[in-house]
Specification:
By secondary structure, the protein is an alpha/beta fold. It is built from 9 helices and 9 strands.
Amino acid sequence: MPRFLFFFIATAALACRAPQKNMVSLPAFDTEAHRGGRGLYPENTIPAMLHALSLGVTTLEMDAVITSDAQVILSHEPFFNHAITTKPDGSFIEEKEEKQFNIYKMSYAETQQYDVGMKPNPRFPRQQKMKASKPLLSAVIDSAEAFALANHRVLPFYNIETKLQPLTDNVYHPAPAAFVGLLLKIINDKKITERVIIQSFDPRSLQVLHQQQPGIKTSLLIEGYDKRSLDEQLQQLGFVPTIYSPAYELVNPALVKACKDKKIKLVPWTVNDAAAIQRLKAMGVDGIISDYPDLF
């Protein structure tokens, strides 16, 4: 390896590991638009994110995947989901074939040939239909920042989920270190480190992030079927995250107290009922993630 290249890589690695101070605190109560508010607009699209901001949410929740040419785009799955996708020829992707449309095997340009906003989604009858594609994370940030400034509102937080799991490393996504590296480059370039939360069900990406750039906020996602205790889950993670984010059915007064005792914010997902939102707020949670940001 040339000496100058070794020096560059070593310097960059040290810079990434340097602790950063979190000067921007999380909102007193965090209202998060799940996938940009997919109950109202096509999920994980720029129109959804901007509409959620117009409703006053504090945080835009989204999912990130990686293309074959190492671009970070928004998508809940690392493939084109049959429920929302129209092929370039105008036909719909069928469930039995959806995993063949592997985004990690497509270039960014190829992904833009698929529409994810026009197919009716019976789960969300209020969702506005419009032509939409899976956007670059960088474009989402640019659009949201510009919208916030133009409308004289507080700049938003970004809660970005890393969509990966051990069984599909290097098949549907890069391994955790490479995945996190691509995310960090965008976050640092856009100078939004203090307003970013990285969340995941897979603790590996959170561990990599915590090692490389511990100043960035982290959120541990927990499935509803996970019956382990909070202590057991944190032991697996290996550090105390900024946020604990379980399925909302798992939240009870004991969990609220346990999180407060550990000084962890508790932000459950995905709450789509106004009465449930009020019940959880009364219980003492620190935020809510919802498909319907108008409920806030």
